[in-house]
Amino acid sequence: MRRILLPAALILAMAAAAPAYASAGLPKLMSLQAGSYAATLSGDSPSAHTGANVLTLAIFDLPEGAKVSLELTGPAGQVVSVPLQPLRIVEGPADGLGEAAADDHGATDAGGHGGDEHAQPASYNARGKAELASTGTWTAVLKIEDAQGRTHEARGTFDAVKGGPSRFYLGFTGLLMGASVTYGAVVRIQNKRNGGAR
Amino acid sequence: MEVPANMAVQPNPARRPVVPPEESNNLLDSAWFKALLKSRWFPAILSYPVLVVFGYIIYALLWGPGAASANLGTSLTWVFWWPLIPIFMFTMGRFWCAICPFATTLDFVQKLVGLGRPVPPWLKKYGIWIIDAVFILITWADHVFGIVESPRGSGYLLGLMVTGVVVTAVFYERRAWCRYLCFLGGLSGNYSRSSMIELRATPEICATCTTQSCYKGDGKTPGCPIFEFPRTMQSTANCNLCANCIKTCPNDSIRLDARIPTQELWFVRKPKFEESFLAVVIVGIVLVQNITMLSFFGPVMDWLMSFVFGSKTLAFTVLFLVAMGVPFAMVAGAAKLSGKVTAESFVQNFARFGYAVIPLDLAGHIAHNMFHLLAEGKSIVYNTAALFGHQITGPAAFLPASTIQLVQFAVLGIGLGGSVFTAYKIATREKGPGLKAFWPHLIVLVIFGLVNLYLFTMPMSHRV
């Protein structure tokens, strides 16, 4: 009995210490209001990070002929212009844009697929890649120039964290692999010198 | 490990018995197919491109977008590869293992710095238990840390596996990792027993063979990487169809026969408890995967959390242990009852009949992942397009829900039929109580099938 209970207790103790994690589809970074135009800016990760970020901009009720631009200002004042590319949506409403995606068995996917407060699809969807050089608070500046030449601006901030895998993980796996390979190489060389087979 | 190049290879005078072409199931009777397998480019022509794609996947998972829906690595791994792999196993046995990027990495490292030490006896003895434990741990970790849903989590898992591969490649001979440690290898081994093809040697030819080059290699081509000796091999579980033995056999003894799916499970000569245990564990894993998607899962979790200091992880762990334990307890109960009839111990009966669950496991796995492939498959197209600078998005489904559900039910029905028939064949294989020993296992299998069927009528959540 003890042989079963002890490992079970150990597993439960470890489980208690482990954090629960839930991921999201296209995580929303912020909502923006430029004049009368409501917009959402989504990232490609639960939070913006250093390195390449794919940003998705959705604007609701944008009139035809309006020009849209997005700039990011970093903590050190650096300015990154996001080259927005219109997003081609094939075969109807898209997962990850605007409406919560109902899955094929009829359930609403709470896993994130970009579900937000706007029920109707956005009239403008665009995506662009932005290289964030440093961690810290960044400011997104959205500018919409309507057909009459009036410019509407909205600003919002988000925090960028360090991107990529943890250093501990990279160090641990790298060290283990490096040490094994080095050991193998050294023993092979020694064996060769001694004239022995590997 | 390998036979020196100058070692004389004596062709065996015995030739293959002449079988009329219309009666032969041997795929190697096709000249072009045989030439393909004998080619020195096989399986490298497939394994190296797979390694390149795998390298990109690791990069994308660790350094790419953190959202699963935007990460091509996640789409390729969990929406494309993982659903297709059980279908591969059913149709082509363990062939994936021959072109698996882990195995290619292993071969490369081994060639470079491998010490070729023999596999320690403890690893041979407990390898399958390690695989069982790792499989359970990964399933648990997936729900707690979100391995499938999190590109980083998936990347960490694959990276840890690469580390394990490199370490074993340096120390141990052949593909010790694939045979004794890889949980995918364990899964492949189990599922491949239900497969449609089998590689076997021809006993009449091998009887007088003195070279054993299928195991040792012939100097140009290494011997069996998975430590199998085709001459005595009776299972597909540890054959990855790498074709090394086809290349090295000087007597043309190797056959690659088409067979009735599940046939191998009817006549397992030396049933092993740990292999049957893995089959039953997979029932639990499928149960866990599906149960977390049910509407009552949330309230049950809330209720459990009130007993375990409000910890969601702890509550899930309790539920996980119960979900894993119930299928085991049910098969164990059936084995106890059936064992009384056959005068076998619980362990013996469990080991013998546990294999009957494999077709249902395989069908459940295919049916579950059919949803991800058919309902989310287009995400692969969108994310691949994004890789080349084209921003496209849209619904991810290939087929409507009702069609996918029908496919799932059909697959599950076939799997249940396969399991029931396998249990029947196992029970009636030897003279004795026959059907009396079959009934307890039949009831358990039908319950497993009905539970799976019910779960597939429930809403499922997406992976990307």
What name goes with the CATH superfamily of the largest domain in chain A? Macroglobulin (MG2) domain
Largest sheet of chain A, in brief, is: 5 strands, antiparallel
Q: Tell me the β content of chain A.
A: 35-45%
Principal-axis shape of chain B equals: globular
Number of continuous helical runs of chain A: 2
Q: What is the CATH domain class of the largest domain in chain A?
A: Mainly Beta
The total tally of domains of chain A equals 2
Label the CATH architecture of the largest domain in chain A: Sandwich
Give the tally of structural domains of chain B: 2
Amino- and carboxy-terminal Cα gap of chain B: 45 Å
Strand order of the largest sheet of chain B: 1-2
* Number of distinct beta strands of chain A: 11
Poorly predicted sequence stretches spanning 5 or more consecutive residues of chain A? 14-25, 96-119
Strand order of the largest sheet of chain A: 1-2-4-9-7
Average pLDDT score of chain B: 89
SSE order of chain B, as H and E?
HHHHHHHHHEHHHEHHHHHHHEHH
Helix content of chain A: 10-25%
CATH topology tier name of the largest domain in chain A: Immunoglobulin-like
Category from helices, strands and their pairing of chain A: alpha+beta
**Radius of gyration from the alpha-carbon trace of chain A, in angstroms:** 25 Å
> Which quaternary structure do these chains form?
heterodimer
Can you walk me through this structure?
The complex is a heterodimer of chains A (198) and B (464). Chain A is α+β, with helices and mostly antiparallel strands and 198 residues long. Helices cover 22% and strands 35% of the residues of chain A. Chain A contains two helices and eleven strands. In chain A, the strands form two sheets. In chain A, strands 1-2-4-9-7 form a five-stranded antiparallel sheet, with no helix packed on it. A five-stranded mixed sheet of chain A has the order 3-11-10-5-6, with no helix packed on it. The radius of gyration of chain A is 25 Å and the shape is elongated. Chain A starts with a helix and ends in a 5-residue tail after the last helix. Chain B has two domains: 24-258, no CATH class; 269-456, no CATH class. Chain B contains 21 helices and three strands. A two-stranded antiparallel sheet of chain B has the order 1-2. Chains A and B meet through helix 1, strand 4, strand 7, strand 8 and strand 9 of A and helix 5, helix 6, helix 7, helix 16 and strand 3 of B. Strand 8 of chain A pairs parallel with strand 3 of chain B, so a sheet runs across the interface.
